Amino acid sequence: MQNFNTITVIAPGLLGGSILKTLRKKSPQTRLKVYARREETRLTIGEEQLADDICSTLEDSVKDSDLVILCTPIQVMPEIVQQILPVLKNGAVVTDVGSVKAPVHTALSPVLKGKAHWIGSHPMAGGENSGIESARDNLFDKAITVLTPTPDANGETVNKLRSFWEMLGSKTITLTPEIHDAYVAQISHMPHLLAAILVNAVSPESLQVVGPGFRDTSRIAAGPPDMWVDILKANNKAVISALKKVQAETQRALEILEQGDTGKLQSLLADACKKRRSI
Prior knowledge:
By secondary structure, the protein is α/β, with parallel strands linked by helices. Helices cover 51% and strands 14% of the residues. The mean pLDDT is 94.
């Protein structure tokens, strides 16, 4: 069980809202504070009784909090941390849910050092629909959450944050920010871009005969474009490297088809089948 008595969620959308809902269900004794910029979001949180304190200023939301969770786009995290720094509780833990870690680590770690414990988090959970309206209390069940602590991070604090995510239902692993970004470029960021490319490559006329296979393959292309532009820009180099591997595999498949080599085609599909079934 996590040991944070007071927790603040900043900018609750799908992930932040799901954190609130799961905490209400699994840890009702925890005091929950939330900052939401939009009045509509604050009203929703109030109607569903998802927080004890619903704040309209960042400063009020983090006062006395033991754990602060940044659920904003990663580009605005440095500005937010600068704003909350003077009122952060000494020794508080600050984490995030962003899907790119190295630039966030570089920007936030030196600012928070000496005041709070910075440990990056990335729950591998979500969906194509965003916003607190899509939040649910089982989003993190059996999902992997990656922790990216600094080399000098306090071990006890890392364990407390690990326990927090596991209480929400996650399985946790620890990676460096750089390795995390390389991995998620291959299994999250590049696939989203490929799904968008796939949808753009088919004719509008063909969509009238779409079946479940195409829906499954292209589902993530329905994600919010603005959010994905930010992610793909922030992890640009790793995504380019991953996309070049896909380019090479695509070229290999094209050559096999042009040659009409049934054996190589069978081998390509069998290798993919085996790898997919191992997941």
